[in-house]
Amino acid sequence: MRTEMTRSLGVAGIVLMVVAAAAPITVVVANFPLILLESGSIGAPLMILAATLILLLFAVGFTWMTPHVPDAGAFYAYVHQGLGRRAGLGTAAVALLSYVLLTVSMTCYLGVQAGNLLALWSGIELPWWLISALMIAVVGVLAHRRIDLSAAVLGVVLVLEILAVLAIDLGVLASGRELTPVPFSPAEALSGAPGLGLLFAFLGFFGFEATAVFRHEARDPLRTIPRATYVAVLLIGVLYTVSSWLVISGLGAEDALDAAAASPDSVVVALAGDVVAPIMRDVTQVLVVTSMFACMLGFHNIVSRYLFTLGRRGVLPSALGQVHPVHRAPSRASLTVTGITAVIVLVSALAQLDPVVEIYTWYSGLGAIGVIAMMALTALAVLRFGGRRGPGARSAPGVRSAPGAARDPKGRRAGAGTLAATGLGGLGLFVVLGISLLNFPLMVGGTVAAIVCAALLVGAFLLGALAGPTRSTGAPEDGDAGAETTVGEMTADDEAPVDGAGEDPELTSDGRRR
Hints:
This protein has helices at about 10-20, 25-40, 45-65, 75-85, 85-120, 130-145, 145-175, 185-190, 195-205, 210-215, 220-250, 255-260, 265-275, 280-310, 330-350, 355-390, 415-445, 445-465. Helix 4 packs parallel to helix 16. The chain is globular and about 55 Å long. By secondary structure, it is an all-alpha fold.
């Protein structure tokens, strides 16, 4: 059976996967009004700008550590390498829970939006859960095959989305409406419930860790992943900051909050028709559906690769770590994600939860907190790993770097600038996490519900940390991942491969392409 996936993604391909998962038109149409509603202020542009700066600082350490963390588990693999195996497994469990919740929330919202569009155009009304079931099937087929197919679909959708967002932005500029600087005021951004506003601001970036998740399908991961990470964060941040400012200006600074409260799901669609052309309403509605589909596909692929990595490492059943012999994709892991998503959607529908007010808001909010917590832990892992590098330095207990990983033969520490940037990014993430938790009861309708949600995340972390094996028993991942891992093994710098054993077939032991 083939053990290697197709290495066909370059910087552009990975950026397409990541930004498409961020769903630009969905963020503009659905998340912008939610940021206004949940925060109770028009400080969305400053909140998004703050999120961009924090993530750029975080990305400095994230990308520096990339050559030392060859697994495709992203946050899980980074925490594993820096803080130890138990912390890594706990992070993996949180990652699975968070991204499954994000996938389900988008699936249910997609069922509503697609149903509205179908009813508008044909008069046929179908239950949202039936449409969501159809979307789950389509995503399952796409994700089962080579990553090239997903990238191609997401690429087409993404180009159309960005063009639509730019059209709305230019329409506001051409309309002659007042461009107010008030949304960039710190006092405005800190009014109301800024924690919830920041939470949904970060939600627009989620999936950017996929730059590392897709490392086994990247043509040159040691160069592609850092470049794709910076490009993705900058592109998303600039687009959202400018667009949120222009949307608020288009609605009017004094009227934006009331307009968002009156019709949060259509206020931006109506603005698009006003400032561009009436037909832009229909175009935007169609693109929102395709954008949500792209986002759903992107999150599905991320969860699949987490399962694939954990299967290859022996944490989960090894069948999840198998590659399809023809498509060279983690098809069994993808099929598992399809089944999990379908079950949760079915249970949520049987519980008669509202697909937007309850499922989308609650699930995506909880998933967002989980991802922010993972990023904060990853920042700590980078600081610990980078700060102790040096001759004779040891990896975290139970951690072993891959024989095929690119390593500094002298074991040099991370530079002071890298550690400082990572520390500031980590501090920002912990602050955002703290104020989000403080304001979370406002979103889920009470303290008890918020405590239950927080307990789910803590429980997932503890379950992963305590239930995981004490050593990896799986095979190395495509030659990138290390072999068996035991407590107290040799350091990364002592693990020279013998006659190239264990190396990535396309990379030399110092990370260069053959």
